[in-house]
């Protein structure tokens, strides 16, 4: 399993020969200015919620790649109005795709499109495939619902926000890792804006003190998981 970070909460997971792109927001992120958005290839695009810093490049990438877009019903309906046709709507629950079982989980966060209209409930994903399993919480505060994650699957790695203010901070992410029973965490949703700039070393130490691992990825870097 490989993880490539494109900034904010946009990343690509390569698993079992398939490429899964999450929350495509690149061109609006000054920190990701060196990323060639037109060079990104995906088989699937998964969208946690409708905010611009998670869906800013969604329509253009979906149309260019022809990837299957998976998200909540409201986001999929909106995409169809934009001319995106290869889509799969979900609500909270599980579905067996050709790549494995995907579960759309609750997230504690707001969700709207860039014009302020309703974008459905915010969520996160558990992807359980034959050769790997991971959990991406999406934007969320710490919540007790995370204790349900091991009911669905035991993730090898989890991608959690660590920036605070709009989401969990690193301290809350440590507790979230207890809830989901996963000690290998990748941090996202940090540094992009002034509100979410973090002390990287302090965040890492919080995890080290708890006997866990936190990867704070560099934009454009690929990691073997």
TrEMBL record:
SUPFAM superfamilies: Metallo-hydrolase/oxidoreductase. Keywords: Hydrolase. One of its GO terms (molecular function) is hydrolase activity. The keyword Cell membrane does not apply. Residues 7-189 form the Metallo-beta-lactamase domain. Signal peptide: none annotated. Gene3D superfamilies: Ribonuclease Z/Hydroxyacylglutathione hydrolase-like (3.60.15.10). PANTHER family: UPF0173 METAL-DEPENDENT HYDROLASE MJ1163, UPF0173 METAL-DEPENDENT HYDROLASE MJ1163-RELATED. This is Hydrolase. It comes from Niabella soli DSM 19437.
